[in-house]
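Quick one - first record:
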Amino acid sequence: MTSRPAQSLLVELNSFIGRERDLAELSRLVADARLVTVTGPGGIGKSRLASRFASLTSANFDGVFHVQLAPTSDPDLVVHAVASTLAIRGEPGRTILETLTARLGQGRFLIVLDNCERVLDGVAPLARALLEGCPELWVLATSREPLNVPGEALHVVHGLPQAEAVALFVDRARQVQPTFGRAQVIPGLADVCRQLDGMPLAIELAAVHARSMPPAEMLIHLDDRFKLLVTPGRIDPRHATLKATIDWSYELLTEEERTVFRNLAIFPASFDLATAAAVCERDLIPLLSRLVEESMVVSSTDGHESGRYHLLDTIRHYGRDRLEEAGEREAAERRFIAHFVATCDVEVARLAAAEQSSWLARTERDYESLRGVLALTRAREPATMLRLGATLAWFWFVRGYWAEGLDWVEAALAASTEHSSARARLLSGAVDLARYLNRYSDGRRYGDEALRLYGEQGDGAGRAETLFRVGWLAMPNQRFDEAESCFQEVMRMARQLDSAPLMMRAFLGLGQVRWRLGKSRESLRLLLQGQATAQSLDDERTLMLFSDTLGHVLHDLGRLNDARRHFAESHDAAHRLGDRYHAAHTLLNIAFVDLKRGDDAAIAASLEASLRTFAELGQRVDVSLSLDGLALLATEQRDYQRALRLFAAAGGIRRSIGAGWSAAHHARVKAAIARCHEALPAPRARQAWREGESMTVEQALKSVLAKEPPAVVELSRRERAIAALIGEGLTSAQIASRLKIAERTVDSHAEHIRNKLGLHSRAQIAAWAVRELLATRSG
């Protein structure tokens, strides 16, 4: 072998932060492939990562060379740039490629070809020729798109994880402001890094301003980030400004690709191929693939294994600026609005259950875009905003966007004064949103206006549906006479209109009123009549509500097995319908049934999971019920002081909002409180009660939920599925039937699960599943 050639590596002028996972993945790829291309958008850190990897692995090679191709604009000059870096000159009778191949064939070498995107037509054939001629040569390329050479392995670089992004900002900020970051919390820092997509170049450019501007102030200016993120002193003009970095990529696009890219910038979040094609008004299959390859668009899959695409926030801002410059923004926004209004504006209540679930899932995936449509139509097309809001009211209700939904309702009502059917539908839907936020007066105002509009329009069904919602609104505030009056009127109108759906709702409402008044047998009769109608109509959502209410009534009548079965049916329906709140509510109800029947750990896990969801959704009545459940459990465990604190906290929450629950629940809680007082010395009981009464909602939650996070347990997909089914109470035979596997296979998996989790029984698997799997699914 010839003497070892000199190496050519970039000198690191500042510290290298993070990227351990990327470096590990590059090591794995280089072990399996001799050509690895590091791809990603400009400014994401491809060159620095490749240089770091080359430096760390240099001991494994006879020579490592970093070839900088950014200054090269002619593909024919690539081979000369490589030869120059290796200090190789032409030899008589040989081409420069032949000389390179001969030299690199004499040992084990790594060449980093950096910034290949502008000269791919020169890089790709050169890399292929060298790899074919040099069996111990490795090529590590950085490019905004792949080389498309046989045997090429790709590593896509993403933004830094949040912790690494913050660490990079602090490190670079201290170079200009040595005292930066000495405080434990730096307001706005994490948000700056998040809005910059964890892009190292953007973070470094922002950190320069730490000398004169705190991160919280930087946030205000990030909408105009291309003016803010400028560092004229940089040697490389491509990285002197954030805009120059993206300009470099944009200029590499064809004119058609630029047009599509500009139009895609109208999306505020992810989108699918069909939606993008509608907004861009063209077939995007080849073009979108090219933009992904060129690192201008990011591809991914959602939980339904559907292809999704999005632009990094910084690149989206750039694209919108270009869209504005091209005079195309208004037309793009019109197409954007038209597409989402056309696909979203449906009569959801008339869809079958499966179609409702599909609509909800699709609306959830596109909700960021729908927010954008609402914002655009507010000033431009107020009637369209009103119509879209009327459709989305049901989505806001089911998916728990109650406060946000009411904000949009108020905005839509203010934007348009027309007395249309859409306005009446929006107002009627807003009654449910107000109920879940315990805003009775607002809900009644919405309901009264909706009733007036439906009356003017002669829409009896709409008026009856609104009366049903107003009746339901009255119950959390114990206005049972008002609720009874509304539901009786719904019953009268149902008979007058000969409407089975309205009759079903009247039975449900009247059954609820009777149950809350403690008239369980009368309630049971009404609910069974209504349930039969719901079954004949195949109305899964209303059946879910009947099952839930029947569960409560049967629980109060002492028929625990029947109650649990109805709650479980309601819980399953909530999952199918994607109703997060109701899934948590039924999990809470199952825990109440199981208080004297099941495993304490499983009951506590169900109650805590429900409590988290209710707290997140702002449902204080249900937070209080979850606290009652935990207090009842503490009573059974003879932890009387804890029980009294939780009972007092729950009661205080209900009093603060004027809410109540059923007579039977009140009686059960009252009996448990009396038991606690009997078991404790009076001073200790009074102290525990005072502590609970003085708790805010946040303090009560913290006292229950502040625990060490559980260790991560690696179960396979099949093991997690089986654990979840065990948590639902299924036997091995039932699980085998559902998953279409042998029963002995189920038992074998259950044994593996016990071993991995360090558990000793099937009941403990069920408790773990409720806490870690079913509770998460319910959320």
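second record:
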Amino acid sequence: MLPKRYMLLPAAGCALVLSAAAADGSWRAQVSNELLHEYDAATSTSGARAPGAPASGLFSSLARHDAAGRVQVDVHVDCARPAPLASLRQAGLAVGSSVRAKPFCVVEGWVDIHALPQLSAIASVSRIGLPHYALHRHPRSAPPGAPSSSPLIRPAAPQAAPPPSGRRSASPQGSGSQPIDGEGVFLMQVTQFTQATNVNGTGVNLAIISDDATSVAVIEDRGELPVVTIVPPNSNPTMHTTFTDEGTMMLEEAHAVAPGASLYFCGPETDVEYVQCLQALIADGVNIVSDDLTFPGEDMMSAASDLGGGVSAVLAANPAVSLFTVTGNYNGSYWQGAYTPISSGAINTFTCPANNQTDAYVQSFAGLQFQTINVAASVPGIPLVLQWDDPFGANASQFDLYFVDSSNNGTCVPLSSTASPAYTGTIYADTLDDLESQITGDSYPDGVPAGNYYIAIGSPNNTTPNTNKFLKLLVAGDGATVLSDPTAGSITSPQEFVSGVNTIGAVDGSDGVGNTLEYYSGAGPLSLFFPTQSTTQAPLVVAPDAIYVDTSGTDFDDSASGGLFYGTSAASPNAASVAALLLSAFPQLTPAELTTALESGATMLGSGSPDPSFGYGRVNAVGSLATIPAPTVSGATSASIVGGSSSAPLAFNLSGTGNLNVAVTPASLIAATGVQISPANCGMGATACSVVLTPTLGASGTTALTVAVTDGANRSASYQANVTVTKPAPPTIAITAGAAQTQNPNAALTPITLTVSGTGPLMVSAAPSGGTAMLSSGCGTTIMTCTVSGTAPAAAGMGSIVLTVKDSWSQSASASAAVTVNAAAKKGGSMDLALIASLGLVLSLKLRRLRAL
């Protein structure tokens, strides 16, 4: 349920009334008065009006019907239960859209009016009413007093029927010479941003929510747009007969600013479909959403209306999504203030025939009893909205609204508690046209004729409960209407009230300066009364409109002569696309951080920051980037390393935004493989880091070490340190066994054992003065205790084996092993004593034998 009471005068110039109780059946308490009127008219046999129901003309244009005569309705259901889709279908509802975003849980569809009792009887149904429709823009001329160079929209051309495919191609205009959104790109300093950062929106999914994108396929074929992902709303298409290409133009602007972003589009008709669009786009991975829709039939007094509550719930569930919306084009046709009654004596006490209330007082508009409405041209579809700050369902006020033409012919719309015990929002419709028709009996299918009209707000007394009620009056002419006593505060659509949503106003970009606020751009501050009374700054920032969108010869029906796109509709995608550039550079930025960057970096306009009309100023990509902390890095400025070892961890500290790329660049003394940065997530979350350096073997001297850090916008910082690499201690070698030995010539050597030390790997060699010498495998590399094997020299005498160890720095040591070789034995002429003794014994024995004979 909406938390406040308000009144909207829609197509028939009437109030939408939601019945809080019913006199003829309990089901009627759940159904809005406009639907009850439809039901009673359909079931009445006499055509008589039900007691308390307004005149039939007042509700004639509120409801939308399809070709089968079914009315479109919103069935609000209990958010604590699953939506009763099966039961609703069984009761006759042709379900179109369904949204569940607590507290906004609604099933929208089409139903025969006779089935309302069956729908109301379903247990989880809380109320049934008409949908709230988005206000679509219509081509038109600017009102008097508007700058001649800035017509909001040129007069409408006859609409051609859409082709069977559902798309209507934009008309050729001739070859354009200006770049799409060129002035916007220039004024927002987008070119400087992209040249400095090499960032173009890549990685960001950007969506447009708008009227339609009828010609998007044509523009894609011309190469002006990449393929756009269309997320369709589930609306009955029978009512959408006017095609503006508003969404196509917004997409072209977004692509011109952030050409690397992926583009999406959704075109809702109702507030239910709007929330459904948000949910579907986010499910597709959209990061940033730009819309230009307004729902003038929704609650202008509360931050917790149906739509506001639904949008708030969706964004709360998706905290990484940023929403950009418009301030609207209603400045100059909006008034707000406390009800300050003055006597109606000048126009006499009068009675409103629709409710028989006699009104002796009227609202004072700068001391006058009427407010003049100037209509610049015949424009269809101008809702007239009046709201006040009674709580929803508890209206205690008694207001009537009087609409009078220039001939003093008038009509009265009753808003008193007798006729309207409670009410809710309305449909987009031709309110002023319907009111004029009630006065004159004429019908103006193209809209109320241009001219001056008058409005008065009456009450029967000047005491409580009417006095001091805060009133909001909106003539939603979208730049085609002007009030004689307008005020600021003309930001009126509920999604604009949601905390964290970025409201964007418009400055004229066609002059290449961009300092002039467009006369229609909604101005703040924004006054709300529910759930609590508050004042909020809006707009957040402004962005250029009057943007060229016809480079390839596309004459959009909704663009002004010369291919210029006017309105806050043009400003919203410009601001959102700058946010896309920032998010492309820094994907970790939250929506709140993006908002802060936009407002802090804006080019200040107006009297201060924030200014009621300009907000924090004009969007500036370079300025916004400058508010995002750039990277820094610091650490020790010198280090010393002994060759062959690694340095102690050299600490350094980082700061910056988002993920930072860290690079350590030494000179030739340290190879790339000799750099180890810790921890593994240095720059990706960790800001206290260190680097360990391992010099190349054999290198020594002093080198410059650079530690650099770069952020997503290619901004960098660095520092240098002098690194000195010293030579290690020289190697050593010692023989532990076999250092001296005697061998016969060519005999095998007794193994020589040696130990080496030093900074490896070591090169060990054995050089014999004769013979051979062979080192054991791995000596000096994997084994520091080695052996030498080989053979002795062939010649007798003294020999040696020289053992040498050398490191990578050409430092060496050596040791020698001595080998003595025996002389060889002499041959012939002499016998040794043993042989002589043996021969003597033999001869002695032979002599003894001879004597015995």
